[in-house]
What does this fold into?
Amino acid sequence: MYLEKEKVEAFYQAIQDADTIIIHRHQRPDPDALGSQLGLKALIEHQFPEKRVLAAGTTTKGLAWMGDMDPVIDEDYREALVIVTDTANQPRVDGELFNQGQKLIKIDHHPNEDPYGDLEMVYPQASAASEIIALISHTLKDRLPMTDLAAQRLYAGILGDTGRFLFNSTSATTFQMAAFLINYDFDAYALSDRFNTLTKAQAQFQGYVYDHLVFEEAAVAHITITQDILKEYGITEEESNSVVGIPGRIEGIYSWVIFIEQAGGPVRYRCRMRSKGPIINGLASQYDGGGHPLASGANAYSDEEKDQLVQDLIRVATDYSQNQ
Ligand code: AMP
It folds into this structure.
């Protein structure tokens, strides 16, 4: 397994040395961001009840069931150890005070494009940041033992980032950690079912997406979702998560992008890019974004830029298929 022993020891030492530990994760959190953040919080609180462990960041309505955030103020950071999970780039950290602590640790599974922190535990081979946290507990054994609450949160994070063990990031280690976690007392089936359940509005919105996908050459598909469409279907941007994987289910589609028009202000589309072969994070970084080789995000600031991104995606996909 990929963890480096000396880094696990340095991580443990940093926790032992700190009275206050503040855990951050990325903006617009998904289940892995919250699972890794709140799972780690539960682990530390259980083993070190005398320490203050704070989860920093904005709350999200749809994922409030995963746990609460804590209020944090400037003074909390003075002597604090800060740990950031699941966040590749510093500008994406939710909470601008994250670099005001005494020590900073980065724990992540994205490519390490923006190295930061006094200690980096960055493993792109991990399916989820939650998998890394589970593996840290598994490695430290009785020094940072797993708990029911932490297991539930970490399992949810892994379910989220692997699409319930379907994505190709799912590895033997993922299953080993899932097996480790599922031994604890939480309802794994209920979590899995929650991730599989659509609201009626989401189901109808899926119908819209299937109907309006645009198929291009080189096995590329895309769709633009306007604010009007979101309103018509009664869908929040967060709920649009349920359509991001759809194009990849269609035979012959290997890369795709879902453009989501942003509300208010100047024109901006959030570009949710996915692939089953061509590497797309390089392209995403040319459009004010980044991410994993096969799952990235970017921004287009005009309709022309959106069209250009599609053309660039076709080019990347064509290069890929010619080199196969
Ligand atoms: P999303 O489509 O928002 O789920 O994003 C997929 C992945 O792309 C995330 O896990 C991030 O790693 C990455 N990502 C999304 N948006 C950005 C961005 N603006 N900048 C850098 N990476 C991003």
Remarks:
- Residues 88-89, 92, 110, 272, 289-292, 295-297 surround adenosine monophosphate (CB under 6 Å).
- The longest strand covers residues 255-261.
